[in-house]
């Protein structure tokens, strides 16, 4: 049986892309006249001038709508790329970001018997030993994999996630084309350079290729499960590691209500205010306590355990994309958020410079003034009407005007926050994310800095300190000797430097003397040439003096 999705070759794929672009009139979105005047290569300028679409009627649908339809037509890789772009509101205008956010990853399922054959091949003898029943009809189908229900030998209900056959070849080929397009646009269209399309494509390629490895997703799932093992906030299904392979993931089957099914949640009597607030708390716990956050928390990956309606908790699936922050970024982000909560814009500006996000040559006072101009109108609204996620988008977009470099780790954070806040406001429109977030951040900062944090750090390292206490006199003596050796070495280095400087000074003096002597000899030679009668001995002397003078002038020593 032939596997679906096999790549038809680069020329065929290029033709398909061009056909889709023409069908949806993507050319109409290009500023053709501006491009022609912008100094693009002659061949491109000729093609733009000759393009018949310039004289066709304007399309009826909006540009953003036509782009979405083209990406849907081109298939999974382009759909997922459009989804990624929809989260980059710091780069795209609102109409494009909103339209691309509508992209749905609905992909036709491949044959269930083929899926079973893939699992049998991956598991070998373990398939017949461990899996009692495999459902041929898939539960869900996406661009990378599809999910089937199954029952294990011990009657445990599980789901089996199967990577699509030959999908890696298709993905790599499409990624190569995307990279070429992005590189060409970046090189030849100056207005598009601020979009950093090559970097965006590389980030996307890294993300989507990681999604192909089910063992990586299994490890992420296990770690997230351990982080929330004793928590009422989030439940993560158990992974059956002994049955997981690079292209097959087996995990516990959960019974939950999709977070977007408000009708069922309300029928269950779920406390939606508590659920929305717990979503915010879950996000900040992952980012600032565990530093390991699920970065693909869209509604399709979130379910709700409403067994106790007054104390509902989330269920997280699909842990392929995980975000982490460097300790420095984590600290600066927390300080920035608190500074914004307190409207301390001077602190915000200072932190951006200290973190290295803004070039040091930027005018800090001007940056602070612009931040104030952008943020004051936002804070004029009631806090529960302010979107925290869109506020961060506005901040990043403003900082981009000051050449702030793209921070991939912050992009994932921003994307996740937009998802979480969107879900929370859908569940409970009065959600005040600021009211939940500010106390959390203040507690976190109190634990990280100050006397209590110092004592806690000392307590955490107490066993190591106690272990070294018996060696403390020896360590002090060794340190003292090392400092004396360092001091002695520094003195020797200083003496050597002084000697070198003296030698250089002497060499420069000698060079000046040689040049003065050379100049004098050349003048002497000129004088001898002008001696009355021009006798031969004078000519010979002038020649020798001229040669000696030239040597002294040109010699390096």
Describe this structure in words.
The protein is extended and about 115 Å long. 29% of the residues are buried. The protein is 60% helix and 8% strand.
| Overall pLDDT | 80
Biggest β-sheet, characterized? 4 strands, antiparallel
Strand arrangement, largest sheet?
1-2-3-5
Beta-strand content: 5-15%
Number of helices: 23
List segments where confidence is low: pLDDT < 50 over at least 5 consecutive residues.
1-8
- CA-based gyration radius: 35 Å
Quote the distance from N terminus to C terminus: 83 Å
What coarse outline follows from CA principal-axis ratios? Answer: extended
Q: Residue share in helices? A: 55-70%
Class computed from helices, strands and strand pairing: alpha+beta
Annotation, overall tally of beta strands: 10
């Amino acid at each position: 049986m032939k596997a679906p999705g096999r790549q038809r070759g680069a020329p065929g794929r290029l033709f398909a892309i061009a056909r889709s672009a023409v069908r949806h009139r993507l050319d109409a979105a290009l500023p053709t006249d501006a491009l022609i005047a912008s100094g693009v290569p002659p061949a491109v300028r000729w093609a733009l001038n000759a393009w018949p679409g310039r004289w066709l009627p304007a399309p009826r649908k909006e540009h953003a709508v036509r782009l979405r339809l083209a990406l849907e037509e081109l298939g999974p890789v382009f759909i997922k790329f459009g989804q990624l772009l929809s989260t980059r509101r710091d780069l795209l205008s609102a109409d494009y970001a909103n339209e691309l956010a509508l992209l749905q990853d609905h992909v036709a399922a491949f044959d269930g018997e083929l899926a079973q054959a893939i699992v049998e091949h991956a598991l070998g003898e373990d398939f017949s030993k461990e899996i009692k029943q495999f459902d041929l009809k898939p539960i869900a189908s996406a661009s990378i994999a599809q999910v089937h229900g199954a029952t294990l030998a011990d009657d445990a209900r599980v789901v089996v996630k199967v990577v699509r056959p030959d999908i890696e070849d298709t993905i790599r080929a499409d990624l190569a084309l995307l990279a070429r397009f992005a590189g060409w646009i970046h090189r030849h269209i100056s207005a598009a350079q601020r979009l950093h399309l090559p970097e965006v494509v590389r980030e996307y390629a890294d993300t989507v290729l990681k999604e192909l490895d089910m063992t990586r997703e299994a490890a992420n799932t296990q770690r997230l499960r351990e982080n929330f093992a004793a928590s009422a906030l989030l439940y993560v299904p158990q992974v059956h590691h002994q049955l997981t392979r690079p292209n097959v993931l087996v995990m516990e089957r959960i019974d939950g209500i999709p977070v977007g099914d408000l009708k069922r949640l309300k029928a269950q009597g779920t406390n939606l205010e508590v659920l929305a607030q717990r979503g915010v708390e879950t996000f900040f716990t992952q980012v600032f306590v565990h530093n390991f956050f699920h970065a693909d928390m869209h509604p399709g990956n979130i379910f709700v355990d409403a067994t106790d309606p007054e104390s509902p908790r989330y269920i997280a699936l699909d842990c392929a994309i995980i975000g982490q922050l460097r300790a420095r970024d984590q600290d600066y982000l927390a300080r920035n958020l608190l500074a914004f909560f307190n409207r301390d814009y001077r602190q915000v500006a200072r932190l951006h410079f200290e973190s290295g996000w803004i070039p040091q040559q930027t005018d800090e006072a001007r940056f602070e003034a612009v931040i104030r101009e952008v943020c004051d109108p936002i804070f004029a609204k009631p806090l529960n009407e302010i979107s925290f996620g869109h506020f961060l988008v506005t901040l990043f977009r403003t900082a981009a005007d000051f050449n702030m470099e793209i921070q991939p780790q912050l992009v994932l954070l921003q994307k996740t926050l937009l998802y979480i806040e969107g879900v929370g406001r859908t569940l409970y429109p009065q959600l005040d994310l600021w009211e939940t977030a500010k106390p959390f951040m203040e507690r976190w900062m109190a634990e990280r800095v100050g006397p209590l944090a110092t004592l806690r750090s000392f307590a955490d390292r107490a066993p190591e300190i106690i272990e070294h206490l018996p060696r403390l006199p020896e360590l002090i003596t060794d340190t003292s000797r090392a400092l004396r050796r360092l001091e002695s070495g520094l003195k020797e280095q200083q003496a050597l430097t002084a000697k070198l400087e003296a030698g250089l000074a002497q060499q420069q003096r000698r060079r000046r003397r040689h040049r003065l002597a050379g100049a004098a000899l050349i003048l002497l030679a000129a004088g001898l040439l002008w001696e009355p009668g021009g006798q031969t001995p004078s000519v010979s002397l002038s020649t020798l003096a001229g040669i000696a003078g030239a040597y002294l002038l040109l010699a390096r020593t």
